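Input/output pair, single chain:
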Amino acid sequence: MPERTISIMADFWNGPYAWLKDASDESSFVGVNIADAVAGFCGEPPVSAALERDFAEWVIGFERHYDEPTFDWQAFHSRGLALSHRLCDELCGSFRVFYDKPCEDPSYPTDARTEIRDERIV
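Output:
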């Protein structure tokens, strides 16, 4: 079992989207920010440039439009979950990966956190 977790959650100011913490920490705190739309992951952990670019587009869209009445939360989460699955694939089981809804989502309390399972690990 991996010793660290990465949580994917959109937030504000430079588009932070990835957060790291020890896997034994079961608190609701997502962790320390390790990636944003400006700098990406900075090589640790190694993530493809294409995935960093897609995360940046996703989080910037959130920052710009989350408060509009027509913001499509379902599409936003579908894309965030798909990106989280890609991250899990790239990390090859070296981290537990979670997707967390931002609290700005009106349905935030419902399924607020989803663990992304690496299908190669049983």
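The chain has a mean pLDDT of 93. The helical segments are 49-65, 73-91.
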